[in-house]
């Protein structure tokens, strides 16, 4: 069974024809967007040497006698102190593991929409046929959201504060709750040892549920001064309006027989997917 199992869905009526597909996927495994919890007792690595595949590529160069030759290029990331090591990842970069899982998603999409259903040709002859984007349309709340939900995290302080320099675990803390979860999940996905407290299902569930009600740092998102209204109909329309407007526009273009891509693939953050599920009334708070 692949990632996209047809058995999980009801069969479409035989008189319907597939015209367009919108795919929203969670981005692949990556490094944390910042260095957190690298000191004892957590000891999560500050720098991750897990990006070897992404740093090697072929380049055409002009050799002797003006003959074009192929050379292997290795790209390095240099730290502030001048140190550089092959394969070291940038903050938030897809690791080799993430690139492999992302490739698998693409392979599954090809099997279903090219080989099985024939929606797309074997080889794309135009970029207008398919649309790919790394999208981040995350929900953002004002300080009222943190004020309302931080008390739910106080019970975790005695277990987790020691891993973040004695600071309390808070939605808007230092580091932020979303940042802690980002680091823990990324480390665990790549086989690094994480503190046992972060493997407790009850602890993780509390953190995940509250992160869904918050956003990444303001520099990475659009801010909506809407307060704690994640379940309010008007709020949801505003928060996800831009994303759903793009979806609706694509469908309308197909109906009107104007030029439109056959498939739209958007890689999203957790907050985007949670907001979309909430708007469509299929969010299960996980």
TrEMBL record:
Gene Ontology molecular function: phosphatase activity
Family statement: Belongs to the histidine acid phosphatase family.
Protein keywords: Hydrolase
InterPro entries linked: His_Pase_clade-2 (IPR000560), His_PPase_superfam (IPR029033), Histidine_acid_phosphatase (IPR050645)
Keyword match Secreted: no
Entry protein name: Uncharacterized protein
Cited PANTHER family: 2-PHOSPHOXYLOSE PHOSPHATASE 1 (PTHR11567:SF110), ACID PHOSPHATASE-RELATED (PTHR11567)
A Pfam family assignment: His_Phos_2
């Amino acid at each position: 069974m692949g990632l996209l199992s047809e058995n999980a869905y009801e069969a479409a009526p035989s008189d319907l024809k597939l015209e367009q597909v919108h795919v929203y996927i969670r981005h692949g495994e990556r490094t944390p967007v910042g260095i957190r919890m690298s000191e004892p007792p957590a000891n999560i690595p500050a720098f991750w040497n897990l990006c070897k595949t992404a740093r090697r590529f072929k380049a055409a160069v002009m050799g002797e006698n003006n003959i074009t030759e192929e050379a292997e290029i290795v790209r390095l990331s240099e730290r502030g102190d001048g140190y550089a090591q092959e394969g070291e990842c940038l903050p938030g970069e897809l690791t080799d593991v993430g690139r492999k899982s992302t490739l698998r998603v693409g392979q599954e999409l090809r099997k279903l929409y090219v080989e099985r259903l024939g929606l797309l040709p074997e080889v794309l002859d135009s970029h207008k046929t398919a649309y790919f984007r790394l999208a981040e349309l995350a929900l953002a709340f004002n300080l009222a959201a943190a004020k309302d939900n931080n008390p739910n995290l106080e019970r975790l302080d005695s277990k987790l504060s020691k891993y973040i320099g004695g600071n309390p675990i808070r939605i808007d803390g230092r580091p932020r709750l979303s940042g802690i979860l980002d680091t823990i999940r990324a480390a665990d996905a790549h086989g690094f040892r994480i503190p046992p407290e972060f493997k407790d299902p009850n602890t993780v569930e509390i953190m995940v549920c509250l992160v869904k009600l918050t956003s990444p740092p303001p520099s990475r998102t659009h801010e909506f001064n809407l307060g704690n209204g994640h379940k309010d109909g008007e709020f949801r329309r505003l928060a996800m309006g831009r994303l759903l407007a793009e979806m609706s526009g694509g469908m309308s273009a197909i109906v009107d027989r104007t030029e439109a891509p056959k498939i739209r693939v958007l890689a999203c953050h957790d907050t985007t997917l949670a907001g979309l599920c909430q708007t469509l009334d299929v969010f299960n708070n996980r």
